[in-house]
Design a protein that fits this description.
Length: 122
């Protein structure tokens, strides 16, 4: 079984582009438009999570920062690397506050995406 990447991104075009690039790089990808997929985290057991900071469909209005912090403070999920993804200028500060391992600023280069994923999955 290959390295599993969970992509949580509400923008269809960005999500599909990320999935295509990651699958082309031989990663197994689980993708969702919202964070409800996290209910199945134990089932999927991802090696890394790419998490959009603003998820328009998230029912509790939790941001990626809050979701990341919840995952990182939970002993059962704290080991999973999280890369926050956003176009906001202060994504570095948001990622740090959310205890994420790294951040990727939109728009991003696909090589940059793959390089970052490789860094946190090797």
């Amino acid at each position: 079984m290959g390295t599993k990447i969970m992509v949580i991104e509400d923008d269809t075009d960005i999500r599909e582009t990320m999935v295509y690039a990651l699958e082309d790089a031989k990663y197994e990808v689980i993708a969702s438009e919202d964070a409800r997929i996290l209910k199945f985290l134990n089932q999927y057991n991802p090696d890394l999570i790419l998490l959009d900071n603003w998820l328009s469909d998230w029912k509790s209005d939790a941001s990626g920062e809050q979701i990341s912090k919840q995952l990182k403070t939970n002993p059962a999920t704290s080991h999973i690397p999280i890369i926050m993804v956003s176009a906001v200028s202060n994504i570095g500060e948001i990622a740090k506050a959310g205890m994420a391992d790294a951040f990727l600023r939109k728009p991003f280069d696909l090589k940059e995406l793959i390089d970052m994923v490789e860094k946190y999955t090797k």
